[in-house]
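TEACHING EXERCISE
Course module: macromolecular assemblies
Task: Read the component lines below, then compare them to the predicted structure of the full complex.
Student: A.B.
Group: 4
Components provided:
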Amino acid sequence: MEAYLSVLTFALISVVSVCGIYVLTGLTGMFSLGQAAFMAIGAYISGMLVVRLNMPFALAAIIAVAGSMLIGFIVGLPTVRLRRDYISLVTLGFGEAITALLNQSVQVTGGAMGFSGIPQKTNFTLVVVSVIVSVALVGFLKVSKYGRQCIALKSDELAAKAMGINVPRMKMIAFLISVGMTAYSGVLYAFYTTYVDPSMFGWRKSAEWVIMVFFGGVNSLTGSIVATLILSALPEMLRFASEYRMFFYSVLVLLIINFKPSGLFGEFELSPSHISKLFKRGHKNGAVNVAASGKDQ
Amino acid sequence: MLLQVEKISKSFGGVQALVDFSLSMKDPTIIGIIGPNGAGKTTLFNVISGVYPPDDGGKIHVNGQDVCGKDQFLITRAGIARTFQNIRLFKGLSVLENVMCAFDPTSKYGIVGGLLPTSRRIKEEKLGRQLSEHYLDLVELTKYRDEKPENLAYGLQRRLEIARALACKPKVLLLDEPAAGLNPREVSDLMGLIKKLNEDLGIGILVIEHRLELVMGLSKQIYVLDFGHTIAVGSPCEIKTNPEVIRAYLGEEECVR
Amino acid sequence: MSPQIIVNGIALGSVYALIAVGFALIFNILKFSNFAHGSLMTASAFIGYIFAIKTKLGLFPVIIVSMLAGGLLGVLGEFLAFRRLVNRKASSIYYFVSSITLGSLYEAVVTIAAGPNFYNYPRFFHKLVISIGSIVISRSDAIMFVTSWIVLGLLVLMLSKTRVGRGIRAVSFDADTASMMGINVVRHIQLAFFLSGALGGLSGVFLGINYTLYPQLGNLVTKGFIASVIGGLGSMSGAVIGAVLLGVIETLLINFIGSGYAPVFTFLIMLVFLLVHPQGIAGSNVQEKA
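Instructor-supplied answer key:
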């Protein structure tokens, strides 16, 4: 039971960061291969504040998240005006830079040996509450003007600008929200495992999250969450060695991209309006002219 | 002065797409832009709406505001909205949401409202929805409000683009070949709609069209472009009989009533 | 600022140039950043390694094998990950995810097959260094330098003078028009992937020799990406210039500050470039395509 609880806790911590990735990649269509670096920043800042300066946990967490968002702002500033490829490459470079920095600054962070001695403040309840709050916030965001504008710019950036949408500003907002959530998941993580080291936060981790979002269905928050739970928990439960895990992830996702690109869940969302629509559909008698062939999105 | 465009030119590399174009619209009226393919009509719209800036020396004023060289979204907020030659609807959003997101940039709640159901958000969302439903109603697409835009028939998609542009609350609307691909009945419906937008809503309209019955039937004034140059400006009657225009169109299969 | 450092930097830059050009080839033809390039490099380098150990032949046969392996892996990857996307004209998001996934796949296979160990290529060079005046160049660096530039030169010749090369450029420019002109678009895309993979194989071997061979070697592909950004995404000549510049600047910085911080500086260099001159050296399109 202990083991299952632990696996579930890790999976739920991943859900918190995947909510952030969903905002960045699912809603806004931006790819970051460096979000894990923000998780590291959140983890290290909060860890060091508590261990070195004896700061109370909540305050350290807030500072860590705010600090990460500030760094995210600086990284994002030159990049949000440019095309998508640049965001991926810049965040990739950023991730590598942070990893190198952490590895080098042995005095401060313990370098490659990692940083230990973090008190365990994260318990299952905190994680569950965090997940519920994260999912709620992102859910509200999706149906707000921010969500709509992000989906619009993801679909057609030029048309979005033509409709008066300030695209760089939207991209920055999405990026910062994503950074904040990822940093917070880093805080949860550090205070659960009581130990962090730079190798845990490489671009592979970022890639894993992106894969989870796509596996679940890039347009569906529900899908991203379910996919995260499945892909995080399953290999642990089946005791796969980590290389095989990556192999299976990759094969699965390639299959999905090739054969069901909208992901496991497609557009489906577990939200009140959707559930009531499901009921209505039985009675619906809409006449829809199907003309355009299905180009995917 | 709703729209004032002075001597704008645009070249791409060595190709001169638009040369010294000028236009002014004082009160809301309908102006047609015609010309053979490649004449620079869409380039004109792109320059006015800010997709790219004009070459040095041009001036663009919307509602008295100088918008030359400004970012696209600022130009839209200054009062110009447009539709596209190739339909560019937002996939991933429903028909209603497509219209709503044109209202969203001016919606008055902040990020807190974005993340939580504050009362201001609820109020603004309701307002946005009502406005968007109103525009959908105007173009007679209300019953499709929850559909995916890519599932709509071509003619309906064109109407949706117009509804979306209206949600920007423009003073001037740029319509880029709105009748392309429509059958005669749909064209006549469209003409009625454009007339309504101009007369009832007081929106100035610039329309690029190859369907001459639409342009001739609606426009107060017509500009004719050929190879980037303005070869004629006048009322429909004057244009119909203008020898330059007829020459430029030699080979066109449109019949001019 | 001794000439020695500059020379070392240029040598390093040549290898980066190979990576950056391989990357640029795919960027030009399919308009996306192929994140699988790094793992492809690693995989082909490993195949070359196995060949080297088994047959005990010299450097050049190993290079040929790696390049072939890389080319084939490139074509395989195109089929597995990108063919269907091209067919249904998917948006660029899918290409990103597919390439990342493909890269993870390649890397996972290498990790499973080879384990997390480090491997060393057998010693290919008997005389270790060449001296030119006061400058000392390791023989391996010299050979890498010469080979890289020969291969790049051949590639440029091929792209500009041969029929297939023109075909690739046509497809890069506008695939639909190219197919209407009777060009077999799929074949040319496959060819581009083959060439890109071959370049990747070559870079993999060189990196393997320079550093050591381990499954995460592909991480170094980041340098190639950054070189492309500095040079201007999509421009081949820009990629080369950016790569050499990056090699030189990096070597300088490592000399003065130490190798651990290298990625930090590479990143900052890129950030500065993007702030100041985002089109890169060769000037490419930085806004989202209309």
